[in-house]
Amino acid sequence: MVPQPTVFDYNLPSGSIANQPVTPRDHSKLMVIDRNSGHIDNLHFFDLVDILTKNDVLVLNQTKVFPARLIGHKTTGGKVEILLLRQINASTWIGLSHPGLKINQTLLFKSDLTAKIIDTNKSTGEVTIEFNFLGQEFLKILYDIGQTPTPPYIHNCQPEDIVRHQYQTVYAKESGSAAAPTAGLHFTKNLLHKLKAKGIQIEFITLHVGLGTFQPLKSENLITGKLHHETYEITKATADNLNLAKLSGKRIIAVGTTTARTLETSSVLIPTKGETDLFIYPPYQFKFIDSLITNFHLPQSSLLMLVTAFCYYPNTNFKFTDFKSSIISQAYLSAIKSDYRFFSFGDAMWIK
Hints:
Elements: E1 29-33, E2 40-44, H1 48-51, E3 56-61, E4 63-65, E5 69-74, E6 79-87, E7 92-98, E8 106-108, E9 114-121, E10 126-131, H2 135-145, H3 160-166, E11 174-177, H4 189-197, E12 201-207, H5 219-224, E13 226-234, H6 236-247, E14 251-255, H7 257-264, E15 272-278, E16 291-295, H8 302-310, H9 327-337, E17 348-351
Parallel strand pairs: 1-17, 3-12, 3-14, 4-11, 14-16
Antiparallel strand pairs: 1-2, 5-6, 5-8, 6-7, 7-10, 8-9, 9-10, 12-13, 13-15, 16-17
C-alpha cells in the first residue's frame, strides 16, 4: 500500500529556495549521508573527485531541456500559456494549458505560429495541440520564441538566454525534457574531466523528464502505485558496461532520481527504449543502484518518497515508521540550519 504523501512533509523557509545556481556549479554544497549509520558530513560538490574511487560508476541522465513554454493568446484576445510535454507526430504535441482550453479553439503565437486544440483529457489536464508548422521548421520557431520551463517556485529575473544555459546540464544531448534532471546541474566540464582522469567510470542514459515530476501526487497514483509515464532509453553499449560493472562489484551511483527510476526499471539492464511509470516508496528494494546523488526535494513529493525508501529496509537495517523521525527528515532539518539551498538550483546530497 502506498503511504500517504502528507506523511512526507517538512517546513521550509521561503528563503531556503534557490532561484539561481551557484557559480561555478560544482561549488554547491554537498551533504554526504551514510544511510547505514545516519552519519552526516558537509562538503562541496567538487570534493567528489577526492572521495570517489576507481570502483565507482557514475550514471548520468543526458536528456536536454527544450524551450517548452509558449505564450500566446486566443482569437478572442485572452492570454494563454502552453507547456509542451511530448511530441506525437510532426505537427502534433501533448501539453498543458493555462487557462484550460476546449476542442477546436485556435491559439495565436509570434512568428505566425498558430495552433488548434484537437483533444482534451479532463483526468490529466492535458491537451492535444496541432500546429501549422511541423518538423524542423516548427522546432526552429520554438527555439526562437519558446521559453525555458523552469519550475514555478523559481523566481529568476535573468534573460531567457541565461536561464536556458543555467537550466541545462553541461552534458545534455538528447532533446525532450520539460524539466531538467537537476542533480546533474552541479557538474562542470572540468569536474567531469578530473573524475575521468582519476579512472572513475561515467555512463549515460536518457530519460525525458515530464511535468509530473513537480505536480502533486494524485489519488490515482496512490491507488495504482504507478507514476506518470516518462520515456527513457538505455543503449546496448551502456547496458553492457553497467551490467559488467555490477557483476564486477563496482558501486553504481545514480545521479538523480530520474536515473534511479530508469535503472530500477530492470534489475538486469537490457538495451531498451520505452516508458517507465515506476513509483518508488518505502518499503521498496533497490535492485541495481548502490548509491544516489540527488537534490533536496519538495515536501509531499514522489521524489522525497524515493530518497527516503533508499535509506530504509530492505536496503538498510532501519525499519521505516514515520518520516519525521527518519534519516532524511533529520538531514533536511540539518540542511536548513546549515543554510543549504533547496530544490532545482539548490545544493546536493549524496546518499552512500
